[in-house]
């Protein structure tokens, strides 16, 4: 990139109206011209959000009050020692250098050295303790966030990009960590130093103190003007960072599909658009916040000049006892007097970024978890009598299931047939209580599943989904995930029943073979065999097979049919399958079309009716199912 390009790019950004971000609606579209009072409403809402994020961080810090009190004591000590140095230097100038006498100078120098050593020791320990406090606090926030994620319903994850959630768990919490490690101590030190310096300056010379403070209103006005604009962009920067992370995670996970359809240029364009939005938000956030230290340095230099000029005039004319040493003290104190504001300015980028990240973290922690009702505490062994009683359900506005009713007796196998979007997988989601019905009821053994304990209900179900998911670890550990107390021999037996044992033994390390993330290292069909073995090991009362054999070749499928039949024996089983020969053996076949149950019966009964199912069998038209 040429130097001319570097100079040109910032000016191109100025063409973008930064107010677009300030008045942006939740749907990320530019808003219409605002009502005269709209800006005021938006600003107050933003202030409440940031104040709430700060309050909640303080709740975590309050658990370590004793350690924070120690830090505050060390901050006070270090701040007082910081005042000693400039004062002693002024004394040395007035009492020893100007009169050219050195009697007693050694004692003063020894005190000056001791103050510097004490300052270093106090600073070291206050930083050491504060880092421990910060890391312990971040540990708790990260732990609470992760624990809360495990309690959130499936619909939460269905509506959000996984990359954006990961960005909150990693990037946003790391921003909070960086701020707690450094900014808290600096803020405390700045407040104590400010008060101490002001008191000493007033004691030495009220006139020079007033002269020193003339730049303070300019500093506050400059900070207010800059921060009002910076807050918007730091929040936008965190939001767009989450979008970029989400898009990156999605495209990396789907690289095989991207390359299959030669969509590299498309995903590059999509990333470029999102990355451009992040660049613009980051540019304006850093540009405005970058003004702060520059403005503060200018005002500092202005303050030094004013003190030197006014103090020099007063010293020459011997006004109010002002001496050269006192001017030196005031110049040094003036630097330290504005240091708190300088520290805040230098830390402001991290502070704003951390608060924006904290808002995003606490937004997830405020999501309502899966909660049991007062009645939802029934725990009992399932017998397997399942009944859908006039069940209706919709994910959003459009209904997915409409007044669906059927009953399955213990030990029966029911298969679902229907086009994509007919509601087959939705029935499974409702049965496992990933979602709750909008109308009607689902009962197991006569008890509404909404009155059953979720964890107890799911622990008695075995689920094999179309998209098999394996964790990073050994094959042995992945199968044992179905029942953590299972022995190695029980794992081997489950793998044999699922016809996975033979291919596992051919692997270099057998059951100790380590899989990469999401089962990388074995084929899709082999992953599903491992998933079936995991369900077998769980020994569930209810078995759910959602396209469980969709990625298994015909020969392998035939080999595991007997194992599946043995698994289904004595258990209520729900099967969604694209292959008609898998469906034919079911005790009941339910035909779903557009969310309605149109046909129900055994294979023979449905063939005699000569309806939709009959046409599927006669033509073997799988497109009608898909």
UniProtKB/TrEMBL annotation:
Presence of the UniProt keyword Transmembrane in the record: yes
Molecular function, one GO term: ATP hydrolysis activity
Record keywords, A-Z: ATP-binding, Cell membrane, Membrane, Nucleotide-binding, Transmembrane, Transmembrane helix, Transport
A Pfam cross-reference name: ABC_tran
Location in or out of the cell: Cell membrane
An annotated GO cellular component: plasma membrane
Membrane-protein topology: Multi-pass membrane protein
Gene3D superfamilies given in the database record: ABC transporter type 1, transmembrane domain (1.20.1560.10), P-loop containing nucleotide triphosphate hydrolases (3.40.50.300)
Main location: membrane
Biased composition regions of type Basic residues, renumbered to the chain: 34-45
Positions of the UniProt region annotated as Disordered: 24-48
Residue span, ABC transporter domain: 386-619
Domain ABC transmembrane type-1: 69-353
Membrane-crossing residue ranges in chain numbering: 66-93, 105-125, 184-204, 210-227, 304-331
Name the record gives this protein: ABC transporter ATP-binding protein
């Amino acid at each position: 990139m040429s130097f001319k390009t570097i100079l040109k790019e910032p000016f191109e950004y100025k063409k973008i109206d930064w107010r677009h971000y300030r008045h942006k609606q939740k749907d990320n579209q530019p808003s219409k011209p605002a009502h005269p009072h709209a800006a005021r409403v938006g600003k107050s809402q933003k202030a409440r959000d940031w104040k709430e994020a700060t309050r909640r961080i303080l709740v975590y810090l309050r658990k370590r009050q004793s350690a924070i009190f120690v830090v505050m004591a060390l901050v006070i000590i270090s701040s007082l020692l910081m005042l000693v140095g400039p004062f002693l230097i002024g004394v040395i100038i007035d009492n020893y250098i100007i009169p050219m006498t050195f009697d007693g100078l050694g004692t003063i120098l020894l005190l000056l050295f001791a103050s510097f050593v004490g300052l270093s020791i106090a600073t070291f320990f206050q930083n050491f303790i504060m880092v421990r406090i910060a890391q312990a606090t971040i540990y708790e926030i990260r732990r609470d966030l992760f624990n809360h994620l495990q309690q959130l319903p499936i619909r939460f994850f269905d509506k959000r990009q996984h990359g954006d959630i990961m960005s909150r768990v990693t990037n946003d919490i790391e921003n909070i960590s960086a701020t707690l490690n450094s900014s808290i101590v600096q803020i405390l030190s700045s407040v104590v130093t400010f008060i101490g310096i002001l008191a000493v300056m007033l004691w030495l010379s009220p006139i020079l103190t007033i002269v020193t403070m003339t730049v303070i209103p300019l500093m506050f006005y400059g900070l207010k003007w800059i921060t009002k604009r910076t807050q918007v962009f730091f929040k936008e920067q965190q939001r767009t960072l989450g979008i970029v992370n989400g898009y990156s995670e999605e495209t990396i996970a789907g690289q095989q599909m991207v390359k299959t359809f030669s969509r590299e240029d498309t995903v590059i364009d999509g990333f470029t658009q999102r990355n451009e939005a992040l660049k613009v938000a980051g540019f304006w956030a850093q540009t405005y916040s970058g003004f702060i230290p520059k403005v503060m340095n200018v005002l500092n230099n202005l303050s030094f000049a004013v003190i030197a000029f006014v103090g020099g005039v007063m010293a020459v004319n011997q006004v109010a006892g002002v001496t050269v040493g006192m001017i030196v003290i005031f110049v040094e104190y003036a630097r330290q007097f504005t240091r708190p504001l300088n520290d805040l300015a230098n830390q402001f980028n991290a502070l704003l970024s951390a608060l924006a990240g904290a808002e995003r973290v606490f937004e997830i922690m405020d999501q309502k978890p899966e909660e049991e009702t007062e009645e939802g505490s029934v725990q009992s062994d399932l017998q397997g009598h399942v009944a859908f009683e006039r069940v209706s359900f919709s994910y959003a506005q459009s209904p997915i299931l409409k007044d669906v009713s059927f009953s399955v007796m213990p030990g029966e196998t029911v298969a679902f047939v229907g086009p994509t979007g007919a509601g087959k997988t939705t029935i499974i989601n409702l049965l496992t209580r990933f979602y709750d019905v909008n109308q009607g009821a689902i009962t197991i053994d006569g008890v509404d599943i909404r009155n059953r304990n979720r964890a107890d209900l799911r622990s008695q179900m075995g689920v094999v989904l179309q998209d098999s998911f394996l964790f990073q670890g050994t094959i042995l550990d992945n199968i044992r995930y179905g029942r953590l107390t299972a022995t190695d021999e029980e794992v081997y037996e489950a793998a044999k029943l699922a016809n996975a044992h033979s291919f596992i033994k051919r692997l270099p390390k057998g059951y100790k073979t380590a899989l990469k993330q999401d089962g990388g290292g074995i084929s899709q069909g082999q992953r599903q065999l491992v998933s079936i073995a995991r369900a077998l090991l769980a020994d569930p009362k209810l078995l759910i097979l959602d396209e469980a054999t969709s990625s298994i070749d015909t020969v392998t499928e035939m080999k595991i049919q007997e194992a599946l039949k043995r698994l289904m024996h004595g258990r209520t089983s729900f099967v969604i399958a694209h292959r008609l020969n898998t469906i034919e053996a079911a005790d009941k076949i339910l035909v779903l079309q557009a969310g309605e149950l149109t046909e129900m019966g055994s294979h023979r009964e449905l063939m005699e009716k000569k309806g939709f199912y009959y046409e599927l069998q006669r033509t073997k038209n799988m497109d009608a199912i898909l």
